[in-house]
Each structure stands twice: as C-alpha cells, then as structure tokens.
Amino acid sequence: MEWNEIHTTPFRSAPSVFKLSKQRNIILFRSAPLHPIPSIQTKPKEKYYTTFNLKKKKKTIQLNLIHSLALSSAPPGSTPQHHRNNITMKDDFQSDTSSVLRLNIGGKKFSTTIDTMTHREPDSMLAAMFSGRHTLPQDPHKGYVFVDRDGTHFRHILNWLRDGVVPTLVEAEYAELLREAEYYQLLGLVDGIQDVLNKRKEDDELRTELTRTDIIKCIQSDKVRFRGVNLSGIDLSKLDLSFVDFSYACLKNVFFSRVNLQCAKFRDVDAEGSIFHNANLRECEFTGANLRGALLAGACLQSANLQDACLVDCSFCEADLRSAHLQNADLINANLEGANLEGANLKGAKLNHANLKGANLQRAYMRHVDLRDADLEGAKLDGANLLGAIR
User: Fold this and answer.
1) Which of 29, 300, 327, 335 has its CA 20 to 30 A from that of 41?
2) Is this structure's pTM higher than 0.85?
C-alpha cells in the first residue's frame, strides 16, 4: 500500500493509527461503534490542505480539520460532538493555544491553556511538552494528558506560569516546590524561590531577641550582660547602658544615638551600620569589632580601645578620639574630618583613602601607618610620630 492511500476497517479494541502522509498522523479512538470510513485516495505531494476524492459518493471535498472526515462517516442519529471526541490529530491538538488543556498530574486534575504552559517559561520541560513537537499520552475518553508526578504543588506551578508570583509557603513546602520546579526546568521559579528563602534567612538574622522594654528592665540590675544576644535593628537611643557587656552580640543597625555607653564592652561584636551619633563611648572596648559603615559622628571615644577593629567607611566627623587605641585598625575610606586624634595610637593602622581634613593628629603615634591617597588637607601633625609611615 502506498503512503498516499488509506483503507479503513471497523473499530475493534485498541486505537488504530493510519498514515495520511509521511508528515501527518490520524489517530482514531474507539468510544462508540462507527461505520467504516470509505476508501480515500489523496493527491500526492500536497501538504496540509489536502483534497480527498470520495469515490463512492463521487464528490470532491476540501478538508482543513480531520474532524470533518469523522463527521462524514458518523452513523445515523449520532451527535457531531460525540465523534469529535473520538478522533484526534497530533497537530490539531496544538492548533489553538487559547483552548482548554486538561492535565492529570499524578491523579490530581487541572485545567489551563497551552499559552499558559509555554509563554512565561519557554525553555522549560512543560513548554517543550506542549509545543507540538511531541506525542503525549492522553486519555481517549476524557482528554486528560497524564504526567507521572506528585500533583500536590502543581497549582502553585500553574499560578507561577499565569502570574509570575512566588507563593507564600512554609520552608518545608518551599523545598518540595523547589524540587518540582527543578524537575519541570522552570528556572524563573527556581530563582524566585531561592530569593525568598535567602530573604527569610536575612530577616531571621536581623530579628531581635529582646525589645527596648526588655533592655530597660535588665539595666535596672547592677551587672548587665547581653553577650552573644541578637539585638539587630533595635532602638536603644538615650538610654544609660554604661558598663553593659555586649561582647559577641549581633548589633547590626542598632540605634545608639546619644546613649551613655561609658566603659561598655563591645568585643568582637557585629555592629555593621549601627548609629552611635553623639554617644558617650569613653573607655569602651571595641577590640576586633566589626563597625563597617557605622556612624560615630560627634561621639566621645576618649581612651576607647579600637584595636584590630573594622572601621571601613565609618564616619568619625568631629568625633573625640583623644588617646584612643587604634593599633592595626582598618580605617580605609573612613571619614575623620575634623576629628580630634590628639595623642591617639594609630600604629599600623590602614588609612588608605581616608578623609583627614582638618583632623587634629598632634602627638599621635603613627608609625607604619598606611596613608596612601589619604586627604590630609589642613590636618595638624605637630609632634606626630610618622616613622615608617606609607604615603
């Protein structure tokens, strides 16, 4: 039998597949008895719009959709819609991207459109499945396309494909959804879930363990310690926290403005971005502390110990740092304009790109200080020890 001839027989059990051409398949599904379809002779070398010559009726009919062929052979009394569901063509399945698509995901049923499945994530497995390039397993009676995956979170996947919004879930559910997104190769959803998880992790790190009220109650006792406590983002302005031990605590973005912190301990704290504006930090200990980007403008740091501290991008404008201990401190890009550093110990400190305009460095101990690209305009260096300083 040639490729361009089709001879049909009555339906029996399993679907029968016939070749209309080398490019087209006709799939006939049996859901009710049908009369045999007449012998059909096609014109060779024609493509989609093919002219069929129905010999028995001696009539030429031009067909666009295969359903027309099904209707021409329907038994008397049958409905057109009934026979439309009996015959499916591979390309006709993809002919309308706005048509309803029925999915069976591990037993859970969903309805969507081909456009939804292919538009937002065009490089995903789902887009490839419904691109028309692949034959899909489909229930011949109900028209559902079956996918052997857990359908628990597939509604979130559909909502992502529709709206592009990552759902709000608990962490365990995010892990399950992430696994499904990776399976379907939904790279946008994978990135969105990871962004949400990273944001939650950051928020957890910044979540304070105590409130301002808790702090006030605690400081009424004789000896107060907040060693290793997370106080990130809390407002402690204008309190008397002198002699309090904050060592090893997380103090990111804490508001210490105008606080009395005389003799307080900040050993190895993480106080990045904290505000100590006009605070009393006299004789405080900041050994090994991270104060990157902190604001200490106008603060009193007389005799404070800042050895080995990270003070990158800190602002010490008009701060009082007389006799402060700044050995090996990292002051790269720090703003020390107008600061009073008289008698301060800066041995081995890094002052690259620091702003020292108008700073008082009289009698400061600055041996082996790195002053490359530092701005010393108007700075007072009378009596300063600059032996071995790098300029």
Assistant:
1) 29
2) no
